[in-house]
Design goal:
This protein has helices spanning 2-7, 20-27, 55-65, 88-91, 123-130, 157-167, and strands spanning 8-14, 33-39, 46-52, 69-70, 73-74, 76-79, 110-117, 136-144, 147-154, 170-173, 178-183. By secondary structure, the chain is of the alpha+beta class. 31% of the residues are buried. It is found in: Nucleus speckle; Nucleus, Nucleoplasm.
Length: 184
């Protein structure tokens, strides 16, 4: 029971006309979703419970979407059933090196480096881009000598090799900028 609770997040302040597919679109990038329970009362705002397979993905979703502006509604995202998760906006340590929030990172030996990222790139943006080549289990972005670089771990050797072949010299985009990246 504790595992299920730590995998389920509450998403509040949703627009009254939202559909389950839109909730899924908001959260699929954080990990495998097991269930979405959308509640639309007669008057907005609506709310939903989103259950992830892994509690670390639930933590990532909270970090990435709490306070997010969706269609003019500022989302409230927290752990479901008994309390708010760690409030990252207030007591966040000054730097993260593991790319995972509130859990043990899932690192692997199948690692690629990414150069040429725009300064606005986040570890989430990088993970989304690199998923085109396979199953990403870890990503991080950091500043090094005025440049923005990334590290991405894949779950297997084939995905890592495919990422180097397919994603090297591709256009990386996020909401703020775009740049051609090098993957090695």
């Amino acid at each position: 029971m504790g595992r299920r609770n730590s995998c389920t997040i509450y998403v509040g302040n949703l627009p009254g006309d939202i559909r389950e597919r839109e909730v899924e679109d908001l959260f699929y990038k954080y990990g495998r979703i097991v269930d979405i329970d959308l509640k639309i009362p007669p008057r907005p705002p609506g709310y939903a419970f989103v259950e992830f397979e892994d509690p670390r993905d639930a933590d990532d979703a909270i970090y990435g979407r709490d306070g997010y502006d969706f269609d003019g509604y500022r989302l409230r995202v927290e752990l479901a059933h008994g309390g708010r998760a760690q409030s990252y906006s207030y007591d966040r340590p000054s730097s993260f090196s593991n790319g995972r929030r509130g859990g043990v990172s899932r690192r692997s030996e199948f690692r690629v480096m990414v150069d040429g990222l725009p300064s606005s790139a986040s570890w989430q943006d990088l993970k989304d881009h690199m998923r085109r080549a396979g199953d990403v289990c870890f990503s991080d972005v950091y500043r090094e000598g005025g440049a923005t670089v990334g590290v991405v771990d894949y779950t297997n050797y084939d995905d890592m090799k495919y990422a180097i072949r397919k994603l090297d010299d591709t256009e990386f985009r996020n909401a703020f900028s775009r740049a051609y990246i090098r993957v090695w």
